[in-house]
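B., you asked whether I could sanity-check this one before it goes into the benchmark set. Here's the sequence:
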Amino acid sequence: MISINCQTGASVEVNEQTLCGAKLNGLSLHRAVFEGNDLTDTIFVDADLRGALFTGAVLRQARFDRAKMMNAALDMANLERAVLVDAKLIGADFSNANLRGANLGGADIGFAGFRGADLRGANMLCMRMTDADFEGALFDE
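And here's what the prediction gave me:
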């Protein structure tokens, strides 16, 4: 059993041995604290991650399909090959994050920050791209 602490004062108990590869589908993890954790292959499909803190977390191949991640802090996180299809990323901070090979197809990235992020090989067929900040980001075709 693992306890996930949230800045709201709430705590969410999950029946998992480790967060790596954990199935956290549909959970309400509003303002959850995951800073610096290894969450490789973790599944957050349809989860409420508004304002969650993922600063410096390892999220390789994590799945965030349709997750609500408004104002989440993902700065310096490793999201290599992560799936964020149709996620709500409004105002999220991806500064200096590794998003190589990530799939953001259909995601709403309005007002999200990708300053200095590595977006090479990422699917960036997103909504509201013109409202996002890509200053200093690395990208390819």
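One thing to flag: The chain has a mean pLDDT of 97. Otherwise nothing jumped out at me.
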